[in-house]
Every structure is written in C-alpha cells, then in structure tokens.
C-alpha cells in the first residue's frame, strides 16, 4: 500500500490520496474488511498532514468505500462488486460495413505517418507558432465575463447566436445573398459534409466532383453509399468539356466542388469557369455542395467570390465554411450556409448526433472575431505562408523533375511526376531519409494519380523545406535513372 | 452610404468600417465604378481619424474590392459576381428518411417548450448558478500556459491524452477493470451512442432496454433502424422476470440500460439486480451498452459500481460516460470505455464524422479535474440538489395525487397519475399558467405512459418549485373531478 504512490505537484493532496485509495480498493488490492492504517500512522508514513488524511477517510466513508468501527479502526468496505460470469465478444466480427470502410479509408492508419524529428510535408494544418495565444486568452476571458454561465450550460443545436450573426455578415462580405438562407454551426467541415449527405435523399446517389479531390470528401461519400465521378482539372479549374460530357452521359444527385485553393491541387477556379459550372448545374438541376476551403488564403490577385455568391437568390448551392486550415483547428468549428428550410431539417439531424457544437469553442471564436483579431492574424499568416509558398514553388521547380506543378495559394502544392515514376516508391525512399509527404493517389476518385504527390509546407521551417525537397528531388532522379528516363 | 452604419464599442474601427464597405459593395449597394468619398471627406462625415480610413482603403484595394485612379479618386471594383441563372430546389422533397425521422422525433420542435419567465420543470440541465467560473478560467489559463499552441492545433481522434488517462483512472475508481480496454472521447453521450450503433453489425437489429427510457436513446435507435423492446421498471430497477421472458421469446442484438438515476424514472438498480441482469445477458450472449447517466449524483447510500464493473475482465459491456448533467454541458464531452479493439474501430468512425472532439474543451475539463475542482464542486452541487430533491418529493406527495412516484437521486422525479388522467392534458392546463414539465409518453418505447410526467427540479428556485407543483397538483385534481374520480 502506497508503495506506488507518487505525488503530482499542483494538485490538491486530498484528491490524490483519495483517488489512490479508491483505486486500491476497487482494483481489489485491498481485501474486504482489511484494516487500514490509522490517519496518524499514514501521516508519518507519507509525510502528509493528519488533517488531510482525516478529510480523505471521512469522504471515503461517506461514499461507502470504507467503514469505521469505534475504537477498532477503519476497514475496507465491500464495494458491491459481485463476480458474474464474464464473457468475450469478438467485436471484429461485429463491425458494420460503415465501421469497416471507415477503418479501411482511414489515412491515419493506412499511410506512412510523419514521426517526430522528420520533415513533414504531409500536414496541411496551420503553423501553431503563428497563433496569437494572448488574443485567444483575451477572447475567452472577455466572453466568460459577459456570460460564462450561459456558455457552460446547454446551447442551441443551430449554434451560438452571436457567431451565427457574425458568419451571416461574413458570408455577405463574400457576396453571398443570405436572404432566405440560414447557418448551422458544425464540428468542422467533416461533420458539415457528413450531415448533409446523410440528410439528403437525392434522385441518384451519385456525386460529381473534381478529380483529384479532398480525401475526406471521398471517404464520407463512400461511407454514405454514394458513387463518385471525378472530372479532371485544368490550370484554371475543372475541365468544363469533360464535366459537360459526364452530365450528359450520367445522372447525378449532387455536385461537390472546391473552387479555391482546391485540395490537393491548389488550383483556383477562374471567374469564367465559375459561371460555366453554375450554368451547367442549373441546366441539369443538380444542387451543389461548395467547399469554401482555404479561400481566405489568397496571396495575390483580387477578391474571388464563392460559387454561392454567383448563385444569386437561388437556393441550390450549399456552402460549407471552416477556418480550420487557417485558424485553430483544435477548436472544431465549421458552418453550413444554405436554404433556410434545409437548415431547419439539418438542425434536427445535428441535435440527434451530438446536441450541439461546443459553445465554449463558438464563443471564443466569436469574441476573437469581435475583438478584431482575425484580420490582423490573417495578414500575418498570409505574409508568412506567402513566403513559404514562393520558396516551395522555387525549390520544386529547381529540384524535383515534374510534368506539372499546381497551387497558387493555400498551404500546399501538387506535383505530377514524369510517366512511370510512382510517388509511393518515392515516399518509401524519402521516409528512410526522414522526409514524408502525401502520395497523391489517395485523392483520386478512380484509382489514378500514382505519379502525383501533395507537398504541404505550412509547418516546415525554411531550412527543412529546402533540404526536404532536395531529398524528394534526388529520390525522383534516382528512380528516373533506374527507369532509363 | 453610411446612413445605417453603427459603431460597436470595443471593436477596432478599421474592422468595422471595412466590413461595412465590403458588404455595401458585395450586396450591390455600390455600383461598379461608382466613386467613393475621399478619406478626408469620410473622416469628417464619420468623425473617424483619417489614418484609420486610409488603412481601410488600402486593405480594400489590396483585396480587390476597390481601385484607385491617381488624381481622380477611389472607385468600386467589379467584384467578379456575374449573374447566372439561379434556380430553386424544393429541399423538403429531398430529405432522407433519417432527416425526416430526426425532425419528427425532435422534442425541441414537437413539445411545448418553456418560455422565459415560466416555471420550467422540463429541463434536467444542471443549474448554471452552481458553476464555479473562477476555477474554469483558472483551468483554461493553466492549460493554455502549458501547451496553448498544441490545444489549438489538430489533436487525435481518440481524444486528448491527459484526459483519457484521467478517465481511465476514474473508471478504475468505479471498479471497472480497464485492462484490455480503452477510451474514446466523444461529443457527449449522444454522439457516443450514435457512433456505437452505426459501427456495430449485430445479429439482430433489436435493442432491449428499460421502459420508459432516455428519449435520445429511443430516437437514435430508431434513426439507426433498430427495433426496440422496453422492459417495465420496478422500484429497484428493471423487471427481471419480464426481461427473462423477453430474452426467451425474442432475439436481441444489444441491450441498453441506465442502472443509476435512470432517465426518466430516477430509479437506481439494486446490486442484486445488477448481477441478475448481467447473468441473463451473458446467458443469451447479448452485449450491453451501459449509460452511466448521473451516477455521480448519489445523495445517500453507499458506492454503487456500474454494470461495467460487475462485468469483471469480460469485454461485453460498453460503458458511456458524460458529465453533462452535472458539469458544463456547453463543453461537449462524453466518453466510451470499452474493449480496446472495438475502440480502435470506433476511432476511425469518429475521425470520419468530425476529426475529433474540441481539444480546448477536453483540455479545460482535464485541467479542472487535475486542479482538484471537481470533487469540491460535486460536494456543493450534491448538497444543493439533495435539498431540491427532498423539497420536490415533499411537494409532489403533498400536492399531486399520483399512483407512483420514483426518483432517489439525480435531477428529476417521475410520476404516474391515476388511471384516466393524461399528462398532456395537464401540461396544456399548466402551460397557460406558466408551468411546463415533460409529458412522460415520449420516454416510452411502446406508445404507453400517457399518465406519466417527468419533473426536473435542477433549475427551479425553491419558491417556484413549491408554486409550480401546486399548479400541477390543482390541474390534476380538476381533471380527476371532471372524470368523477
């Protein structure tokens, strides 16, 4: 007893001793009716004040873990656990197709992961060194002072009202007509997309999207039982001719597009193509899910309105927003801006899934915006990422032989290698030398893309960046030589 | 222009003026090529420093909303939104069965809701006046100081490691053998239950549970396509005889039970019944989902181990925990403690749904526990709720004629009225007098319970409590007189 007891600094001793004794009893280390040392003995043994130990014993007795017999001492209670026949379930045999597919399509399990100390181009998370923690703290304390109790109790499934109002205005500054529309706050893009697919009953469970596209979107679409047809990408966005043919030859229930800093290619769809895309979808009556991914991360050029803005007063575009690739992904906030009646139905689905998104997260983010921190942060982040973007482009051009390089903004570039060079081979070679990136095939809807790779540069230092890309470049050259290119 | 501009205190002026102008432009209030007032003119007009306005114009120009012609002035840019044929989707016609059922079963939409100023017995949320905000702030600042950047960037789908470790120990103090088990952090009980049902592929999509039971569990089970059979409740928990018959006569894939302070009846299952229940489930090889609902809110009596503890080293019990009815429901944290391999599959499902639960929420909660605040808070909350519980029992006995009253802990009581008295009639009568509660029929798996009601007392003052129950009592008596009882 107490041989394995370790005191943690900064935690009340009563709590630590009590927890230790509770576990000692419930884990069966202490026999029922076994006598405990007196508080005096324990006080000497542990060098802890007797008052503390008296408090612990009193509470444990109140909670029924121990009992006292006057002038005899304190003893372990029977904590009420009788043995019953325990049995084993083979859970692997009882996983649903959804759980199996989620596991099979789980990149975190399937792909080579960057280990500590490696140069990691696989991540496209923001660089946490840019986070302005002081402003986040300020936002938290400001909001807690205004309505702390309210933040900590149940909120609304639709979301925290001040944040919804803020985002409504934010969508309007993007040119989106919010009349007759509404907003649902979600736990990031992932939940938004998942809730929409599970809430719709479209004519055909068939989605038209860009090829390649966001791996999570492919995964969720498959888990929800949708077929996917991907349309090739040109330098200024989706191939309109190919899209038109696909729409004529197949029936689709939905389209999913990422017009800005598209993941994984980093391509921005031109204004002309935005108009064309919407004309085609209107002609074939196909609603669009627009992923507003990274559209804040424009490093040059003028404001580009999302497709939802081009849609005018129509209600056929469902816009999904998130700040996760820019600001605080640990705070899980995304949103759906769509037709008011549709949002009303999605609110019930959201409530049935997890009641609502963390009010604390929503409130901190709202106050951070309200305090005017976002604009300043974005300016700083953009200048930092712009530099990294330019450096990555320069290094890729210099060191990695390739057929195509795309990405005019955002946090990543996309490369297509010479024919016959497989990025998974390169990844294995580089991994041994401490460099990791994402093999591009996981982004393809049709099993293609074996010669492609995505290079995320947001969390890599300049020095690592140059070295890492040299390593990739050398591995590509070696393979090319072997192939006799 | 600027006629509807209102300055909000405590927000940077640059941000406010910029947002106003952006919306003015994107909403089409400013024509393309329309000349804007000079910064000097605007400065006089708005009584804002010219420097601020110069900064705003510079940023708007950088972002492509406006353009400057030297010695001519500043003009509105074409923000790239061409009109495309907009069209309307009738979303109501395209809702999936899940979305329709979620709406139909949405109590927040279906039931009479308590309005501000009413006496609200419908809520079983904790009383936010008990929240110790100072400790929550402390926990936030402590954790942010330790690893703020990490909290705000992406975390792990399984959850925040320190919290998982803490909860593992917490489960052990409840007597649960955590060897071979693991924990997944979820967005509350609701997500935990939903993830499990969608991840399992049991032999029969048929759940055995208590009748009545948690409305959310009924809702999610139905949405996931499960049949439900509810077993009647006795004063010490589920009716074992009825359970045995049901198990013999039907095939079940899962059981779902809430042994402590059961929602809605408030009944605690006795230790003897816990053993019996597990024996029966083992005999029929039916895995159990245990809802650890409110088991912390014991006002008297000794420690009662959860069913997961009685299960010993077996892996057939999946335990769902949550502090939401005790502590900070706005922080959406729940957990699943179950077989390690099962948790591993659930982690992929969780990742496909929303990447992970808010790290900020998890970290604040962890630090709050670590700082030893929970034990103190629980003591205070229990003493307050114990008092309210006693007062509610006393008032119900005194004022509301009933056949049965249950609830020995937790935040609510459950009443069964005399035959022929319908609680929905009573609810309507009371609503007019500013009193609202939950009609019990929503908790029944078989459409029964029309004579039952749940009275949540956690957020009602003593004075309101006495008056509110008198109002209910009078309404019941009036109906009884009409019925000639």
Structure characterization notes:
Chain A has helices at residues 13-26, 39-46, 50-62, 97-104, 107-110, 133-152, 161-173, 188-199, 215-223, 240-249, 271-283, 307-310, 340-354, 359-370, 373-399, 423-432, 462-482; strands at 66-69, 73-76, 119-120, 181-186, 206-210, 227-231, 233-234, 237-238, 254-257, 288-291, 317-322, 334-339, 404-406, 412-416, 435-436, 438-439, 452-456. The first copy, chain A, is an alpha/beta fold and 485 residues long. The first copy, chain A, folds into three domains: 13-76, Winged helix-like DNA-binding domain superfamily/Winged helix DNA-binding domain (Arc Repressor Mutant, subunit A, Orthogonal Bundle); 103-126 and 377-482, Aspartate Aminotransferase, domain 1 (Alpha-Beta Complex), CATH 3.90.1150.10; 131-371, 3-Layer(aba) Sandwich (Aspartate Aminotransferase, domain 2). Chain A has a seven-stranded mixed beta sheet, sandwiched between helices. Chain A has a four-stranded antiparallel beta sheet with strand order 13-14-17-16. In chain A, helix 1 (13-26) crosses helix 3 (50-62). Chain A is globular. Chains A and B meet through helix 1, helix 4, helix 6, helix 7 and helix 8 of A and helix 1, helix 4, helix 6, helix 7 and helix 8 of B. Chains A, B: In the C-terminal section; belongs to the class-I pyridoxal-phosphate-dependent aminotransferase family.
């Amino acid at each position: 007893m107490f041989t394995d007891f370790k005191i943690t600094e900064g935690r009340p001793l009563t709590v630590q001793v009590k927890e230790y004794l509770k576990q000692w009893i419930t884990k069966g280390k202490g026999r029922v009716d076994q006598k405990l040392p007196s508080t005096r003995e324990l006080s000497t043994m542990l060098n802890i004040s007797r008052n503390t130990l008296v408090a612990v014993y009193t509470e444990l007795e109140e909670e029924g873990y121990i009992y006292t017999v006057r002038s005899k001492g304190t003893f372990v209670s029977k904590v009420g656990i009788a043995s019953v026949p325990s049995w084993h379930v083979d859970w692997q045999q009882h996983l649903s197709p959804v759980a199996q597919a989620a596991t099979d399509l789980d990149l975190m399990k399937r792909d080579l992961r960057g280990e500590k100390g490696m140069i990691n181009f696989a991540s496209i998370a923001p660089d946490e060194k840019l986070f302005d923690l002081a402003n986040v703290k300020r936002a938290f304390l400001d909001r807690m002072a205004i309505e702390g109790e309210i933040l900590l109790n149940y909120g609304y499934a639709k979301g925290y009202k001040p944040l919804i109002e803020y985002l409504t205005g934010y969508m309007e500054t993007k040119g989106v007509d919010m009349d007759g529309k509404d907003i649902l706050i979600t736990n990031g893009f992932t939940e938004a997309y998942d809730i929409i697919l599970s809430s719709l009953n479209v004519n055909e469970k068939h989605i038209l999207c860009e090829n390649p596209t966001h791996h999570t979107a492919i995964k969720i679409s498959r888990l929800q039982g949708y077929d996917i047809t991907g349309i090739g990408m040109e330098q200024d966005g989706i191939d309109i001719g190919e899209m038109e043919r696909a729409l004529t030859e197949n029936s689709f229930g939905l389209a999913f597009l990422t017009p800005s800093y598209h993941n994984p290619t980093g391509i921005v769809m031109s204004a002309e193509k935005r108009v064309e895309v919407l004309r085609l979808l209107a002609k074939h009556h196909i609603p669009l899910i627009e992923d507003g991914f990274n559209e804040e991360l424009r490093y040059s050029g003028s404001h580009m309105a999302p497709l939802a803005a081009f849609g005018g007063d129509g209600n056929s575009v469902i816009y999904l927003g998130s700040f996760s690739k820019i600001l605080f992904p640990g705070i899980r906030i995304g949103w759906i801006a769509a037709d008011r009646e549709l949002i009303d139905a999605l609110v019930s689905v959201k409530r049935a899934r997890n009641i609502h998104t963390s009010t604390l997260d929503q409130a901190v983010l709202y106050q951070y915006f309200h305090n005017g921190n976002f604009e300043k942060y974005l300016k700083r982040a953009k200048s930092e990422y712009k530099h990294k973007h330019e450096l990555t482009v320069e290094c890729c051009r210099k060191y990695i032989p390739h057929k195509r390089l795309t990405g005019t903004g955002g946090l990543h570039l996309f490369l297509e290698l010479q024919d016959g060079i497989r990025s998974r081979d390169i990844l294995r070679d580089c991994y041994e030398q401490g460099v990791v990136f994402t093999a591009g095939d996981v982004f393809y809807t049709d099993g293609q893309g074996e010669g492609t790779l995505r290079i995320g540069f947001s969390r890599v230092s300049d020095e690592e960046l140059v070295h890492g890309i040299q390593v990739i470049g050398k591995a590509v050259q070696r393979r090319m030589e072997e192939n006799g290119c």
